[in-house]
Design goal:
Length: 373
Amino acid sequence: MVSLGPLTIRIDLLLFMGTLLILYIGLKWFGLSNKQRDAILGTWFTGFLVWKASAILIGLLSTGDFRLALFATGGIWSLLIAASVVTWLVYLLSPNLRGYWVFTALTIWLAVTVAIPTYGAFLSFPSQPVHLWSAGLILFLIGLTWRWIHHPTFGAICWTAVGAFGIWLMKSYAIGTPSWWWLLLWGGLFGLALYVSKPSRKVIQWAAGIAVIFAVINAVLPQDTGSVAQQTETSTGLNIGQTPPPFELQRTDGSTVSLESLRGQRVVVNFWASWCPPCQAEMPDMANFAQDREDVTIVAINTTTSERQPDDAKAFVSPYEDDFLVVYDVDGTVGDAYRIQVMPTTYVLDETGVIIAKQFGAIDRSWLNLHLN
């Protein structure tokens, strides 16, 4: 997120819009007409509108407040709805434009991947910036796409999807553990690509050889390099795979809560302010989640130095005092240590106190379930 006064903007969405503009200008160099460029990039813009509209609708159904619903993310359901609409629009595209659409998809993904650091264990190189490894593989995929961009075939598109999905799975493996059904989905896509393209025996032999090599490499690696969650030695910092700065803060009743005392539990650390609309939007979902999940402790840190009146914060959060631990960063030292520039900001810690997820901007129940199941 970036802050413009009281307004906060998600960096990934800003990059998305900026890349669309660059692509609209750049596709003209390919000799595409304005109508063709509109058809290709219109799929993305329509998908964005569908994503936001469905997120607002889901937020409205859950909160009953339109103002708060404007800040809802919609979770996985909004993403699935938007992806379905984009897929349908791509199907309607002229076949000779689908290669250009794949190129735009990879370019948007590359822009977001390069700009947003992700840390984790990648093969035998623990704590490497995984986003750079991913960006290199995406560039390689763009190079392959360039060869058939003017004459796309269903087989070429399938294999590109297999490669892209594979990169995403490797990134997921580096920072955590991919869901088994994602692996099944990738396997189904791989089978479809094989069926459509009917590769020669030589290609199959090469593919099998590469798979065996990766399997051997994975088998001989130490067990603690598979994912961030398995690493035993971590540094202090605010990136995924690191241990955040410790703190000890007072609750409303005067008792204190320290981060160290919560070691052994999964913890959600959330920075909020009473004047912040996204904070207001996420509080009910956080409370409902906390009521159902006794295995997770939520620490809601009020950035008291940003409040006009500290009593405003206490009045706002009083309905949630029984659901999670509300503490007050009265002098701003914890907010400075966590470099809080955007509210809300949320960190998820595992039982060892290591950051396994973070979010700049509002969260909801689906986001919490995704990172704490």
